[in-house]
Amino acid sequence: MEKVKELYEGKAKKVYTTDDPELYIVSYKDDATAFDGQKKGTIADKGIVNNTMSNIIFALIEEAGVPTHFVKQLSDRETLVKAVTIFPLEVIIRNVAAGHFSSRYGVDEGTPLARPALEFSYKRDDLGDPLMNDDHVLALGLATEAELATVRKYAHKVNEVMGAFFLDKGLKLIDFKIEFGKLSDGTIILADEVSPDTCRLWDVETNEKMDKDRFRRDLGKVEETYQEVLNRVKK
Ligand code: UDP
């Protein structure tokens, strides 16, 4: 399958059309941004790590009964995926307080939550991706009630599958962001990526941050950490 035309360039990926209207090719870049694009940089070979890791995890998620866009890895940085219309929602699940949850609710980072918390943000860079509840999603017509129920069910399943998988690799899944899309027939599937860019992962033994927070917070060993996470995921 060949790339035909660049459809979209995002912060971390490019998306291309193919000869088949139902299939796209995603190409992962090394570009990194944080704080609504205010901080910019590159993380060498991040594109390779994120592409490979995402595909391994999407295959697992698919096995667990949640459909995903993953079709086939084409190269280090490129993957053939199902074409979807993305819901303009960031679906975040949190198991342990960190990041914006900690600052918003005044809870120390690392505090375990009584139960996983799912939250939605409106994917609107111009508005700073505001937090929204189900009513807001429905009022704006971003999804139907049935679609929201499916998204919630799938997101919690993804949390269970990934949480167990990472724990086996010596990593605690603190929180993560996923995105869902719709096929032309309306089927909802998991799309976008799952990687150290989109998950918070802490080493089980040392609580060391093994994710994009190393870049966001200038903690050093950024490239090494991405490689280490990939190595663990591959084992
Ligand atoms: N996240 C993401 N993209 C975003 C915002 C958040 O992938 O645009 C991920 C982030 O890596 C973390 C989780 O979602 O794993 C929760 O992030 P939070 O709301 O705490 O915001 P952050 O502090 O990461 O900006």
**Low-pLDDT ranges:** none
Query: CATH homologous superfamily name of the largest domain?
Result: ATP-grasp fold, B domain
Mean pLDDT level: 97
CATH topology-level name of the largest domain: D-amino Acid Aminotransferase, Chain A, domain 1
Q: Please tell me the total number of domains.
A: 2
Span of the ends, CA to CA = 29 Å
Classify the beta-strand content into a percent band: 25-35%
Hetero groups: uridine-5'-diphosphate
- Give the % helix: 25-40%
- Any idea what the shape is? globular
| Topology, number of strands | 14
Question: How would you explain this protein's 3D organization?
Answer:
The protein is an alpha+beta fold. It has 2 domains: 6-82, Phosphorylase Kinase, domain 1 (2-Layer Sandwich); 87-220, 2-Layer Sandwich (D-amino Acid Aminotransferase, Chain A, domain 1), CATH 3.30.470. It has helices at residues 46-63, 99-105, 134-139, 145-168, 213-216, 222-234; strands at 5-9, 13-17, 23-28, 31-34, 39-42, 70-73, 78-82, 85-86, 89-96, 112-122, 131-132, 171-182, 188-191, 199-203. Strands 8, 9, 10, 11, 12, 13 and 14 form a 7-stranded antiparallel β-sheet that branches. A 5-stranded antiparallel β-sheet has the order 1-2-3-7-6. A two-stranded antiparallel sheet has the order 4-5. α1 runs parallel beside α6 (222-234). The radius of gyration is 17 Å and the shape is globular. The two termini are 29 Å apart. The structure holds uridine-5'-diphosphate. Residues 90, 92, 98-101, 129, 175-177, 198-200, 212 line the site of uridine-5'-diphosphate.
